[in-house]
Every structure is written in structure tokens, then in C-alpha cells.
Amino acid sequence: MKVIQGFSAALCVLFVACSPRPAATPPAPSEPSIVAGPFQMDASLTPDLVPPFQQGPLIVWGPEPAGVPHGERVRTYDLQHQSTTVRFNWARHAVEGTTTLQIAGLAGGSAISSVAIDAGDMTIKRVVSGNRSLRHDYDGSSLVVHLPSPLRAGQKISITIGYDGANRTKGAYFKSRHIVWTQGEAEDTRYWVPTYDYPNDKTTWEFYVWSAKGERALSNGRLAGSRTVGDSIEWHWVQDKPASTYLMVAAVGNYTVVQDKPWRKATISYWTYPDSVAAAWRGFGKTPAAVDLFSRKTGVPYPWAKYDQIVIPEFQFGGMENVTATAQNDTAILIPAWAMPENTPDDLMSHELGHQWYGDLVTIRRWGDAWLNEGFATFMEQIFHEEDKGLDEGAFDRFDSHEKSIEADRVARRPIVYDKWVNEPFELFFSGHIYPKGATILQMLRHKLGDAAFWKAMNHYTTANAYRNVITADFQKAFEESTGQDFKPFFDQWVYGAGFPVFHVSSRYDRANKRLVINAIEVQARDGLTGFFDVDSDVEVRTDSGVVRFVVPVRNGTGEASTDLKAPPRSIRWDKGDWILDITDFPRSTAMMQYQLVHDDDVLGRVEGVDVLAQRPADRLALDALVRSTRNDRFWAVRARAVDAIGAWASDSSRATIAPMKAVREALIRATFDPDARVREEAGSDGCQSADSPRKMSWSASEMLPASIRH
């Protein structure tokens, strides 16, 4: 499942706030010169001055989220197969159905005289086994069926339930376009079909879904057949490989089904509205490439008979990974052509597809391990993003997860294996931890092991647990078996512990001996949740005689390493590639940061250059570097970040007296003509705020325009 945050705002990236981008690129203004005008930069600052460490803590941990522990539900029986006939009644907003559950006693378990079946807010019409009525009790949530005789290990019984649920507000949704759809995760399947509604069991199933003529019905698995019955059609779908019941789905409406090329024997189809076929191709069209990539990377071929994706109106999430039949928010998938390529549905598409391996094929046993679903799907999304859009985009995607993980612990610190909530399991999903930090942990393992060993271990985890339910210990075990390494310290610190390392890093260069020493100290607040983190940080030093790389091992909160250099360092990177989830205060001179911003081949090094220089508004060299990067950097996010930095200086009245306004104005207006809409949007938001905006500038857009491009 994926949550879309601020989706409407994302579309706004495609508009330019100050002026539309012309069809033909206008003459560019000349390179702005940094002239202080009536206000002067701080002359006391020199390019080689190294500032002190920042004062105060770099992060204050947020309080642990509220809640009480919820352990894994204890199973008393095995649901082996379920067959359901269901109709959706629009007049009553009701589900009307009959379902038969084939239940067996648990191997090694005690004999049971009753079974509890989850059924939410329903009218139970009958409960039978064969022709025999069964005594039952129902409290509106749990249907307790008393068996005719004790059910022992290995013995089986079929129980048929006739049910009706009117005025659905959970489980089944009657929405616009005369489309009805179901949503199971976390524990809402019970509101449209009585079943065992917890993830720690897997079963096969089949649905006979009724629709009106002219409509189609989708469910899991393969379409076994359909037949016309009066003015209705009955669609028979068969899920013949086991999965957890929160992945059950049915959707009915006037859909056009678009067939893409199959992946091997697995068919790939897109269910969309008749008026949105072209948009569906734009939104879903990279699915076959993603299926192939994930199959190759994991070494596990796509494990199901087909893969359908269906657009849903008024869907409460970005998407839902129903096994073989993913539901997708229509506003997130059906993107207009003019919004491309900056705003694409590829991340959502690949995230939900990744769940077909991690979440559907391998499924959690308990909600406290939800990161094994969502963190893994986010990681697979990042893998496709990197493959499809390039290494720079992939690196910036990882960086985005780092920022989100840091913010999550700033608001409410908790481990990613966590089973405390107040009202429902979904509280675990929306704290901001399991998606980005889960993916980040996998990226750290990938970097630690290297791609070959990492994907070999992922293959072992996936194949060893296919069609099974897992907890985090199963993942750790698989990696230890595959690599022969002990991962207990890593999992204790990063998975079962909370927080992340906060470093004070310093460098010392001995000119006489041409030797560089790097020291690191962990300074994060430590307690029972957060301790020290063992990391190996890649350091890269750029000199006029070449690039030197070495590793600083940090153990028990401290680390030191040194290297010989042929020439003095021009720039020094801590954690080259930004693989470690951390906050680092590494004071370096403005000259070093300017050099890094211009010369670093790693986009995240240039992002760091912008971020550090942005904190030095009184430094003329810093402003010069930022203004130039708004135009010259090859990656859109660096340009946008630089635009944001100089815009913040110019709109801050406390800084406006020292920022050279003419250079800033020209850089901002130039950025509104950037080839990338995201940079244009940033320039627009910084350059022409509304009258009540806290970042309003004191000049008009026409005043900002250099004479060469005024209209």
C-alpha cells in the first residue's frame, strides 16, 4: 500500500507562478555578477575559514507514539480454501453473499469445538455444514460457530455462511462513476466477506462476483469464466496460490480492459475508464519493464498467473497491493500528458508491483513487522526509479527517504519493528517510519554487501519464505545464512532500536607530512531505545592531484582514519553517496564547499554543498556559488535547492540588507525559464509570493526581468 501525501501540490509543480514558459527559449540574461550595491557582505569572512560546530543538539527525539502492545493473533484453525458468491446492492449500499470456508485443525494443535470467524456488522442469515444447521453466536464482530464434533489436527470441515451487510462504511465502497470496490488492509475484509481476517494465515480462494450487463468485475487470480444470468453477469475468479485474506478484492464498474504484452506466461492488463485509455497507458505502460527488472533482481520470476491494475475513484490511498489485482488511485495514475515527465505515476506503479513479491508472496505474520511489506516495496520502487531514471535520480530518491526518516523520529521516535497502537494497526503505517526507513535499511545492507551478495541474500529470503508468513527474524536469518555474516548488531541497532547516529566530524591536514586525519564522534542523545551505531563511512577527498578514497570505521561512538595525500584537499566528503542514515555536522570552509558544489560527481555531494552554503548568508563566496548553481548544475534538484536557498535569503528581511539583490533577482527570474518545471515552480514560489506570503519579495516580476527578456 502506498499513501500519497500532497498529491495536489505535486501537480502544481508543473505550473510557473511568475510567467509561462515560452514556446521558444528567450535570450538568456548575462551571468549575474555579485555586486553588493548599497549593502556589503561580511568582509570578516574568508573563504578558508572553518566554522565551529553548531550549537545545541542537531535533533531532539520526538516522544514515543502512544499505544499499547498488540501481539500476534493466536490461530486455532487453518483456513484452507474459501469460495464466495457476492453481489453489491447499490440501493442499499450492501454486500449480499454466501461463502464457504474449508477449515482444518492445526497440525500439532488441540481438538477444537468451535471456530471464530471474523464478520463485521453483518446480518448472518444461515450457518450450515452440508445440510446441517450449525449453532452459532454473533456479536457484530466475531461469528463463533459451534462444530458438530471436535475438530482434531488434520481433520476438515466446510462451513457455509449466508450474510448481508447494508450501509457499508468499511470494506466495500460505493463511489462515483457507479463503481464499487473493496479494501481489505488492515483488517477490513471482514466487512464484505466473513473470513479469517489476520495476516498470519494463507489460503486459496475463488469469487463469483455479480455485475450488471455492460459492467465488468475484477478479483484475484485468473478468470475461470463468466456467464449471463438474466440481466446480470457472474464472473468467476480463482486465486489458486495461497495468500493472506487482507489481499482479497472485488471491483465492479464500467471498465475498459487494456492488454499489455505478457511477461512470460503472466498476462498484464490495465482496467481503466472508457474515456481514459491513453492516460492509463501513460500511467501503467512501464509495468512489463518493472516486472522484468524485479524478476531479474530477486532471481524470483513473477510468481502469479496474471497482473491486473485497476483505477479506483475516490480511493483513500495511493494504491493497494491486492494479490494479482492492484487497486490504484485514479488521480495518481491518470496523469495528463502535459504533466509529464516531471510528474509520473511510475513510483506508485512500481511500489505496488514490488508488493507482489514482498507483501503478497512473502507476507508478514503480525502488523508489528509491517516494514517487511512496506519498507521492501518502497525499496523496490527505488530500485526501479534508479534503473529507469538513472543513478542521479536514484540517489536523490534515497536522499528523500533519509529526510523523511529523520523527520519521523523528530516527531515521534520508535523502532521500525513496533506493535503499539491506540485504535487500529494502520497507525503503524502512518508514523513515517516503515516506508522510508525500511527502504533505507535495505539500501544500507545493499551498500554494505555489494549488489551481488545483497541480491543473492534477497533471493534466499524470498525463496525460503515464498507463500509463507514471516517476522523480521526470518529476514535476518536468511541474510546470515546467505552471507555467513553475523547481522545481530546491525538489526539490534537499526531495526529493533530507534533513531540514527548524529556525528560531529572533523578533519586535520598536516601540510608538512601531507597527511589527512578524519575524526568522528557520535553525539545523539542515547537511552534504552537509541545507542551507538556501528558504521563504515566512505570518505572521498578531491585534490589537484586526483581523488583519494578511504573508510572511517565508527565503533562505540568514535572513529578515526587517515590517509596520505599528494596535494592539499580541495573537498572532503563524509559518507560519499549518502548511504548512512545520519545527521552530520562537518565544518568545512566556504572554499571547500564551493569546490564540492562545482566538482563533485555525486549529486548528493552537490546537494550537501547547497545546503551548507545556504546557511552562510553573509558569505559572498557562498552566494556566488549558489547563484551559479541555479543555472549550471546538470541535475534539477540541485538547481531547485539553490533557487530555494537564495530565495529564502532575499525574502528574509533580516538578511536582505546583506544579500546582493540584483544578482539574486536575475538568478530567480532566469530559473523561471529552467527546462525543468520543478525548478520553475521553486523560482515562482520564491520570486512572486502573494501579498500575505511570509516570503514575499519587495519587487515586482517586471522589475526582476533583465531587459533582454522582458516582454
Task: Give a written overview of the molecule.
The chain is an alpha+beta fold and 711 residues long. The protein is built from 19 helices and 31 strands. The strands form 7 sheets. It has an 8-stranded mixed beta sheet with strand order 6-5-9-3-2-12-15-14, with no helix packed on it. The protein has a 7-stranded mixed beta sheet with strand order 30-27-28-29-26-25-31. Helix 7 packs across helix 9 (436-449) and helix 13 packs parallel to helix 15 (620-632). The chain starts with 6 loop residues before the first helix and ends in a 7-residue tail after the last helix. The model is unreliable at 5-44 and 688-711 (pLDDT under 50).
Topology of helices and strands:
Blueprint: H1 7-12, E1 68-69, E2 77-89, E3 94-105, E4 112-118, E5 123-129, E6 132-133, E7 136-138, E8 142-151, E9 156-165, E10 172-175, E11 179-182, E12 203-212, E13 216-219, E14 222-229, E15 232-243, E16 250-253, E17 256-263, E18 266-272, H2 277-284, H3 287-298, E19 306-312, E20 319-320, E21 325-329, H4 330-333, H5 346-354, E22 362-364, H6 371-389, H7 391-411, E23 420-421, H8 426-429, H9 436-449, H10 451-464, E24 468-470, H11 472-483, H12 488-494, E25 502-510, E26 515-522, E27 535-543, E28 546-555, E29 558-564, E30 569-574, E31 583-585, H13 590-599, H14 603-613, H15 620-632, H16 636-651, H17 661-671, H18 677-687, H19 701-704
Parallel strand pairs: 2-12, 18-19, 19-21, 22-24, 25-31
Antiparallel strand pairs: 1-23, 2-3, 3-9, 4-8, 5-6, 5-9, 7-8, 10-11, 11-16, 12-15, 13-16, 14-15, 17-18, 20-21, 25-26, 26-29, 27-28, 27-30, 28-29
